[in-house]
Specification:
The chain has a single domain, classed as putative 2-phosphosulfolactate phosphatase (Alpha-Beta Complex), CATH 3.90.1560. Helices cover 35% and strands 22% of the residues. It has ten helices and eleven strands. It starts with a strand and ends with a strand. (2R)-3-sulfolactic acid (3SL) binds next to loops.
Length: 234
């Protein structure tokens, strides 16, 4: 049977061999929710950068540049890091370069995987079906916050485990932990996440509507994957 494991922070990724796994990168608030929404809305591709200056340089190549540091849009960039920035006519058909505090870092750390998949509640069932229909072991990598574990990514990991558990054995205890936490909180997800450290951070920046939207399940059927350094659908 295939296995599934959960890495609760990118700072723990050295404990896993990603080279023989499909890695699902998750940053619910808000990077992977933005990527899912943007690609579903018709963005041609999204190229993730860990480094802000490299991302900014892509403007010269005709890319829209997007991103945040500590939740706030980078000055001079075209887009911030709200899914609503991406669900907009001005980005349809465009190539976007993006840098974020944690999400793009987690993608960078997954590059050696057999496949890198972008997961969010917005496309959770599509991702679950994709994982069930392929042959490789899976690692769900939570982006967390600056190396620390966060609630919303761990809850997503548990929700995804819940959807695929009949086809996968748990590799270690993190899937068990994430799954139990998800089962415990699933009926009051919004209020639980509102209480999380990052939601409190975002509330101070007045982006409350992003939080509820990023917890919405199955808005889209897309499965973004990393191909030649850029995220595309299919
Ligand atoms: O850290 C990230 O990658 C971001 O998603 C954080 S924020 O929600 O935009 O603050």
């Amino acid at each position: 049977m295939k296995t599934v494991d959960v890495c609760l922070s990118p700072d723990l990724i050295h404990l896993y061999d990603v080279s023989d796994k499909v890695v699902v990168v998750v940053d619910i608030l808000r990077a992977t929710s933005c990527m899912t929404a943007g690609l579903a809305y018709g963005v041609e591709s999204i190229t993730p950068y860990e480094n802000l200056e490299q991302c900014e340089k892509m403007k010269e190549n005709g890319y829209l540049i997007a991103g945040e540091r500590n939740g706030q849009k980078v000055e001079g960039f075209d887009l911030g890091n709200s899914p609503f920035d991406y669900m907009n006519e001005k980005v349809r058909g465009k190539k976007v370069a993006v840098t974020t505090t944690n999400g793009t870092v987690a993608i960078e750390k997954s590059r050696r995987a057999i496949e890198v998949v972008i997961g969010s509640f917005l496309n959770i069932s599509a991702v679950a079906d994709h994982l069930k229909n392929q042959k490789q072991n899976v690692l769900i990598l939570c982006a967390g916050w600056k190396g620390k574990v966060n609630l919303e990514d761990s809850l997503f990991a548990g929700a995804l485990v819940n959807k695929i558990k009949d086809k996968f054995e748990f590799e270690c205890d993190a899937p068990l932990l994430a799954h139990s936490t998800y089962l415990h909180m699933k009926d009051e997800m919004l209020s639980r996440v509102q209480n999380s450290s990052h939601a409190k951070r975002l509330n101070k920046l007045n982006v409350k509507k992003d939080i509820a939207y990023c917890l919405t399940e199955d808005e889209f059927e897309v499965v973004p994957t990393l191909k030649n350094g850029e995220l595309v659908i299919g």
